[in-house]
Prior knowledge:
CATH class: Mainly Alpha
Largest sheet: 2 strands, antiparallel
Strand content: under 5%
Order of helices and strands: HHHHEEH
CATH superfamily: dinb family like domain
Helix content: 40-55%
Radius of gyration: 17 Å
CATH architecture: Up-down Bundle
Low-confidence stretches: 1-8
Number of domains: 1
Distance between the termini: 23 Å
CATH topology: Four Helix Bundle (Hemerythrin (Met), subunit A)
Amino acid sequence: xxxxxxxxxxxxxxxxDKDWTWVLERPCPECGFEARDHRKExxxxxxxxxxxxxxxxxxxxxxxxxxxxxxxSALEYGCHVRDVFELFYERLNLMLGExxxxxxxxxxxxxxxxxxxxxxxxxxxxxxxAVGGGRLADAFDxxxxxxxxxxxxxxxxxxxxxxxxxxxxxxxxxxxxxxVERGNxxxxxx
Length: 190
């Protein structure tokens, strides 16, 4: 699929500086995600299912069109989720291999600009999502009963067990499917 992009630089997205760890304690009022509804033994299957949803979302004709100038397109969200899968794979391996590691900071907004998310090939992004999601899902499937309580922390001090880390992770791609579906509805109304 060829994606027609405007030569104009897209408006920057307002940086998301929220601490989303609250989704581990209460439902997300936007997408409805409820962390405690997701069993640790099912994280791998849920990651694979989410990654599969992106193939359809990234095949849409309007994949690179932003529903509003300051809201990411489906393509930009897809790139972000692909990169989240990679980042969380690395962090999960740190938690499995080290005692209570501290994760390096990741500026998701800078990454989106640096990698020019809005001009990437949707088919390649869908493939990257499938591969990265599968690899991350496999890694969660291999977590043994004694490893679920291993810990890791962000540089801001937020601490996770592998179990809470998996549920926290799962909210991100689930929420972004919701974002894209909402954006697609707005585009269809135009």
